[in-house]
Design goal:
With 439 residues, the chain is α/β, with parallel strands linked by helices. Helices cover 44% and strands 12% of the residues. It folds into 3 domains: 195 residues, Rossmann fold, CATH 3.40.50.720; 85 residues, N-(1-d-carboxylethyl)-l-norvaline Dehydrogenase, domain 2; 132 residues, NAD(P)-binding Rossmann-like Domain (Rossmann fold). It starts with 5 loop residues before the first helix and ends in a 5-residue tail after the last strand. It binds uridine-5'-diphosphate-xylopyranose.
């Protein structure tokens, strides 16, 4: 496994759990050392226990040496990050290219390099040509693509029981090897249903990931666009979403209206996809994704506008309590978190913002050191003019609005995830406001 971040660490542990001799490689010495000693550098339910189990079997090890990895593996999974470029919407491929440049010269024996990272279409073909130049094994060091669809919080389950497997291959040999690797999922011994497999060419496999994340982002922005219309029309987006969900052609998942999507994948992936489509001369085909992005970002400013309105027209000098910092509950990940983006916007208008999150405070502090952080909901809410519910941690649904009401300066709550019980809050004399719902 080349790269032991979120994706690579999960995949390494799961491959070991499937019985393979597995070596995780990371250029970050500290990360490799932490994993070697059974510590995960991020939060993921069930993964740390599994990591320790697999280390104990001796099947799983970590290294920082490309030479060792090249000598070790028949199959190399490329799991490095592809963040958004600092200077534009496209993907920054420096880690992907760097890994191939570092590994290639050591590849003296037949092997398969399997890309899992999300990359712009055409990358796999380019890497294939480059690897043939770099590797002493020449054409025997091949490239395949096997996109990853795992969700944070469900990473182990999504890796060991994925909805589907996608193989992008350029030869029968590559397909054969991938089938061997994934045999435990494709031909389960325990009588379970085999995981559906789609075999395609390299470019199609790369595009599947871009298409899947674009579709999911579009679904969320669609319901958030309906929320905007509901706000203007005095209608309610929640029963509207429920009514849509009953149509099996639409379905209810990814149809929860709120402050929109964030995280390390959806926002950057739709931007990288549109940038790549423009390069290919088909920017118009995915032009709507610009609007998906805009609708999504507009929900963040809608929360700020509402907070300003509830603060009497000016946020300057107000105290605003923010519940949630992670981009979604169950995670300590704050990458492109809508909650922190809103907190930052409000602070820029001169308000004092106090944030509480059950798990993501350390990460949030690193990214937004100027925000204030509180260890509990009560501490965050003390003296606040407006309370913002921005990440739907289950414990926030259990807050007692009566008790909390005694500590705040103003009983205004914005439920930007639509998961609190309005009558609960209203019964305690709070002004409960939500996105896409009548006030
Ligand atoms: C996503 C994809 O689901 C996964 O398949 C892909 O491989 C990586 O990106 P992840 O980033 O872990 O996974 O989060 P996900 O659970 O998909 O949520 C993404 C964002 O959308 C979160 O900010 C979430 O709060 C938001 N969301 C999700 C909504 O606002 N409404 C919804 O109905 C669903």
């Amino acid at each position: 496994m080349i790269g032991t971040g979120y994706l690579g660490a999960t995949h390494a542990v799961c491959m070991a759990a499937l019985g393979f001799e597995t070596l995780g490689l990371d250029v970050d010495v500290e990360k490799a050392a932490a994993l070697s000693s059974g510590r995960l550098p991020f939060h993921e339910p069930g993964l740390e226990v599994l990591l320790r189990d697999q280390l104990a079997t001796g099947r799983l090890r970590f290294t920082t040496s490309y030479e060792e990895a090249a000598a070790f593996a028949d199959v190399h999974f490329l799991c490095v990050g592809t963040p958004q470029r600092a200077d534009g919407p496209g993907a920054d491929l420096r880690y992907v290219d760097g890994a191939v440049e570092a590994l290639g010269p050591y590849l003296t024996r037949p092997c398969l390099l399997v890309g899992k990272s999300t990359v712009p279409v055409g990358t796999a073909a380019r890497l294939r040509a480059r690897l043939a130049q770099l590797a002493p094994a020449g054409q025997d060091a091949e490239v395949a693509w096997n996109p990853e669809f795992l969700r944070e919080g469900f990473a182990v389950q999504d890796t060991l029981r994925p909805d589907r497997l996608v193989f992008g291959v350029a030869s029968d040999r590559a397909e054969r090897l991938l089938r061997e690797v994934y045999a435990p999922l494709l031909e389960p011994a325990d009588g379970r249903e085999p995981v559906p497999l789609v075999v395609a060419d390299l470019a199609t496999a790369e595009l599947v990931k871009a298409a899947a994340n674009s579709f999911l982002a579009t679904k969320i922005s669609f319901i958030n666009a309906m929320a905007e219309v509901c706000e203007a029309a005095g209608a309610d987006v929640l029963p509207l979403a429920r009514a849509l969900a009953h149509d099996p052609r639409i379905g209810g998942r990814f149809l929860s209206p709120g402050v929109g999507f964030g995280g390390g994948c959806l926002p950057k992936d739709i931007r990288a996809f549109t940038a790549r489509a423009e390069e290919l001369g088909v920017g118009r085909a995915v032009e709507f994704l610009h609007q998906v992005d805009e609708v999504n970002l507009r929900r963040r400013t809608a929360v700020v506008d509402l907070a300003r309105e509830l603060s009497g027209g000016d946020l300057c000098g107000r105290r605003i309590a923010v519940l949630g910092a992670a981009f979604k509950p169950g995670s300590d990940d704050v990458r492109d978190s809508p909650a922190l983006a809103v907190a930052d916007l409000i602070e820029r208008e001169g308000a004092e913002v106090v944030v509480h999150d059950p798990m993501a405070m350390d990460n949030a502090r690193k990214v937004f050191p100027s925000l204030s952080f509180a260890d509990s909901v009560t501490e965050a809410a003390v003296g606040s003019d407006v309370l913002l519910h921005l990440t739907e941690w289950p414990e926030f649904a259990d807050i007692d609005p009566h008790a909390l009401g005694d500590t705040v300066a103003g009983r205004h709550i914005i439920d930007a995830r639509n998961t609190l019980n309005p009558s609960h809050w209203q019964a305690a004399n709070w002004n409960y406001r939500a996105l896409g719902r009548p006030s």
